[in-house]
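Narrative of activities, Objective 1.

The group set out to show that a structural description can be obtained from nothing but a protein's sequence at a throughput compatible with the screening campaign. Below is one input-output pair from the validation batch, recorded exactly as produced.
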Amino acid sequence: MKKTISAAAAVLMTITMTACSGNTVTASLKKTDASAEVTACGMKISFPAEWEVLTGDDVYQMLFENSSGSYTDARALKESYTKNGASYVVYAAAPDQTAMVTLTTLEITADESTGEQLSLEEYAQTNHNNSLIGWQIDGYTLQNTSFESADIGGNSGWQSSCEVYTDETLLMGQSEFTFEYAGNFCSLQVYYHTAEAGEATSGVISGITAV
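Output recorded for this entry:
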């Protein structure tokens, strides 16, 4: 299950890494006995205390330790993101790895050849379409797919959702809320493997507040 979630996250990051280097959005993390609270991209996100919650360089260290790529260390992995204007801001996962929430950013830039810039809706719609096509090409069945405007934590944006099934079994549910912040397209991504995990991630998202 952990590999499936990680693979899905990698696919989304591959889709979004198309800009030039620039803005870096940071996050602050406060842990208590009751929860782990992250402030980033104009929103405050609270996770259950038992979840693993990482921000900043700790995210890249975790990605490096779980990667099979050719990077020499976590710094080299981070540079591969930042040189494309992308940044991993937050990573959070349930203890059993059945649920994960990430927050990533991508600097907004115009296409070098055409000078055109995708709107937030066009960018979010492209990611949504690519995600669905990717699962369908791999032979999976999709249910509960949607793409609609949404407001989360004081931010207005676009929400993409779908559930991926193999036969009649839920393989993974995923959603992505895309919004603009400080010159970046920000993506709040959710993955879950069970109905119970889906309820847990829904609780996290519904509890997000504006800073």
